[in-house]
Amino acid sequence: MRPVVLALAVAEMLLISPGCSRLDFGRPILPLMTDRGTTKRASTAKESQAEAMARSQRMAKALAAWTADVSASADYHVSDEDVLEIGILSLEEPGKVGKIVRAVRADGMITLPWIGSVEVAGLTIQGVEEKIRGELDDKFIKNPEVTVAVTQYLGAPVVLTGAVGKPGVYYLKSDRQSILQLLAEADGLRGDAGK
Length: 195
Hints:
The protein has 195 residues and is an alpha+beta fold. The protein folds into 2 domains: 45-75 and 155-195, no CATH class; 83-152, wza like domain (wza like fold). The chain has helices at 2-16, 49-71, 125-136, 179-185, and strands at residues 83-89, 97-103, 109-112, 116-119, 146-152, 157-160, 168-171. Strands 2-1-5 form a 3-stranded antiparallel sheet, with helices on one face. A two-stranded antiparallel sheet has the order 3-4. The radius of gyration is 23 Å and the shape is elongated.
């Protein structure tokens, strides 16, 4: 989607650039939101330009906060059923990163080669890295380089129902994830949602 948006933005700049001094910078950046149905009518027919601008600014702030929280997922505490991708330098071949994908079992453990079972539930990503590093250090690999990433957040399900774009089960990707972020994942509120 981004390449299309970028191409449209460049095309718009090239076509409008001679008259850019007459642009109305007070108008909303995005057009009024429309229903997803075939009607293509505005979600609120009586919405003023100021309200549309305020809504666009609120959505931009929410999306910025969401991306900041997703990048701060290193503080996320691993739960049962989460799927981890573990990279260990020189695990199988010297100088190459061996990648292992493991789902956290109901008992909070994962099983790794050479080490066996390691309890990871409740630890942060950094804590899991340190624990695996400690198990490998000086026993099998000297000063091991270990990276851990959560590939699937399945440990904290949340059910969204009602007037949302895509009702269903969603999973928390951060310990500090807000309801607004979950609503954004579910395509936001429908046009017929109450206040």
